[in-house]
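Below is how a single chain appears once it has passed through the pipeline. First comes the sequence as given, then the structure the pipeline wrote out for it. We keep one example in the README because the format questions we get most often are answered faster by looking than by reading.
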Amino acid sequence: MKRLFSAAVLLSFIWNLILVLGVVLNMDYALPRAAGGQFESFPTSIRILYVSQTFVLVYQIFIYLQLLQNRPVKPIWAPKLFAYLGLVSIFMNAISRSTQEQINVIPAAIIAVAFFIGSKQVRDK
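Resulting structure:
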């Protein structure tokens, strides 16, 4: 079960990375799935915002891989921060006007649960 969940988390990260990079590169597939699905072309300001989001996502992946390998995580509050960030992501995707963006609730929830579990793992060490 743990392997299955870990695979789901990694697939969720891959989905998010593909989506975020799609916004940065202004790809057609990302248009209905990000930023409320309201743009025919992503404005430069949104694309710049998503560049920073890409760095956060890469750092989340790094922290998750540390947790997966049972390595120490610094700072120890990072998993809890990412868990709460995941809750915000769930909410923002759920209220989107775009039904295709609302589907992003699923990977957001998987990642949030992984970080809530990870925050307990860090706390127990």
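The radius of gyration is 15 Å.

See the next section for the split statistics.
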